[in-house]
Amino acid sequence: MNTMATPATEPTDYPPPTTRPLAVPAPSGAWQGVSWFAFTLGAVTYLFTVWYAVGITVGERYFLYTAALFSLYGCLGVSKVVRDRQEGIPVTALFYGLSFVAALAPFVLVSYNMLFDSTLPTSSRTLIGMAFALTAYATLGIAKNERDKACVRPTALGGPRS
Predict the structure, then answer these.
(1) What are the backbone dihedrals phi and psi of residue 103, each rounded to the nearest 5 degrees, phi first?
(2) Is the residue at 84 inside a domain?
(3) Range of the structural domain that residue 99 is part of
(4) Which of 59, 95, 151, 153 has its CA 20 to 30 A from that of 82?
(5) Long-range CB pairs of 5-10, under 8 A, 24+ apart, other chains included
């Protein structure tokens, strides 16, 4: 009887590596600027609107701030796992699923709060929701830009080949 444990095997459900070249062109300055502008506009609008909202409780204010931070982290996680899978880098199903939960749960919680539990005027609720969504979307763009900048090689920019 063999008492030695068999080594764990890697899951085989990962997609094959793409044929995408390792060197990618750097994102344009315009795209990087728009991504950071959208993030800044959304974040400042969200923070300002929640801070100066009339009739909001301290607990609700802290809830909205915490949900925004959790959502940004979740969006970064989704950006990572989706791109890793596209590039054939192994990602566990648990991390893949939890990344989507971390990104979507704050949207569900804030939406429910804005629709059913909030005493804010409709205009404030709408502004908070749009700023929340804009910030989350811009986070995905910034994450893509940073990853692309990390993959830039001189050959992708038309520089000398080594």
Answers:
(1) -85, -35
(2) yes
(3) 29-151
(4) 153
(5) 10/90
